[in-house]
TrEMBL record:
GO molecular function, one term: protein serine/threonine kinase activity
Gene3D superfamilies to which the protein is assigned, alphabetical: Histidine kinase-like ATPase, C-terminal domain (3.30.565.10)
InterPro entries according to UniProt: Anti-sigma-factor_SerPK, HATPase_C_sf, HATPase_dom
UniProt-recorded name of the protein: Serine-protein kinase
The Histidine kinase/HSP90-like ATPase domain, residue ranges: 29-156
UniProt source species: Celeribacter baekdonensis B30
Keyword list, A-Z: Kinase, Serine/threonine-protein kinase, Transferase
SUPFAM superfamilies, alphabetized: ATPase domain of HSP90 chaperone/DNA topoisomerase II/histidine kinase
Amino acid sequence: MRPEGNLQSKVVRRVAPQSKENELRIILPARENAVRRGLKSIKNGLGPIGFSSDELASLELVLAEILNNIVEHAYRGNEAGIIEIQLSQTTAGLWCTVIDTGAMMPNGEPPLGMQCDLNCDVADLPEGGFGWFLIRELAHDLEYTHEEGQNRLSFRMSIGRLN
């Protein structure tokens, strides 16, 4: 994984023997401003191939949570880090894989992301945890592996299904 310049974005159309897939691959530096540009590139890359604005908003929410967690926790401000995002549109929906070489997730698995009790004073709200709840609510088939120094988080969004 190497970005060329600050951000590399490429849309690839591939036809497999029994199914059609639209693929998008983005490589970006592990920086907040690069995450914002990467999310914009994803929306621009997927919009023309039939995703609704609501579908793109759900995807953006999930990816923003994941990518910002990678920048903030896996790389802990190490701006030399790289993040790769692979998206593949299939008949089952949009398959997403996010790859980085930052620190492994605590306990080697994604947080549970339990829903927090919001019936309290703002000052008493817990810090964090909301993002993983949203990710788990919107994404399906969530899998995480850490092998040979590489984190790989894969999931499926029930959006943009090919017929």
